[in-house]
Write a structure and sequence with these properties.
CATH architecture: Orthogonal Bundle
Protein name: Exodeoxyribonuclease 7 small subunit
GO cellular component, one term: cytosol
GO biological process, one term: DNA catabolic process
CATH topology: Helix Hairpins
Radius of gyration: 19 Å
Number of strands: 2
Shape: rod-shaped
Largest sheet: 2 strands, antiparallel
Distance between the termini: 33 Å
Number of domains: 1
Keywords: Cytoplasm, Exonuclease, Hydrolase, Nuclease
Helix content: 55-70%
CATH class: Mainly Alpha
GO molecular function, one term: exodeoxyribonuclease VII activity
C-alpha cells in the first residue's frame, strides 16, 4: 500500500471505494477487516483534507461594470 499523503484526491477516493467494497463483501478475516477499516479511515481523512484545501483555493471572479472579469477575491466564509 502506498503512502496516503502522496495520493491525489482521485487516487485516494478510488482506493477508499475499493476498501469499502472489500469490507462490504464480508470475506476478510477480522484482522484484515480491522486493517482495512483503519486504512479507510485514514483515506477518508486525507480526502477531507484535500477537499478543504481545494475549497480554500476557490475564488470568486469579480466583474467590472462592462461585464469583463476584473479580478478575483477569496470566497467568503472559508
Amino acid at each position: 500500500m502506498s503512502d496516503i499523503t502522496t495520493l491525489s484526491f482521485e487516487e485516494a477516493m478510488r482506493e477508499l471505494e475499493a476498501t469499502v467494497g472489500k469490507l462490504e463483501t464480508g470475506e476478510a478475516t477480522l484482522e484484515e477487516s480491522i486493517a482495512l477499516y483503519e486504512r479507510g479511515a485514514a483515506l477518508r481523512a486525507h480526502c477531507e483534507a484535500r477537499l478543504r484545501e481545494a475549497e480554500e483555493r476557490v475564488e470568486k471572479i469579480t466583474l467590472a461594470a462592462n461585464g469583463q472579469p476584473a479580478g478575483a477575491e477569496p470566497v467568503e466564509g472559508l
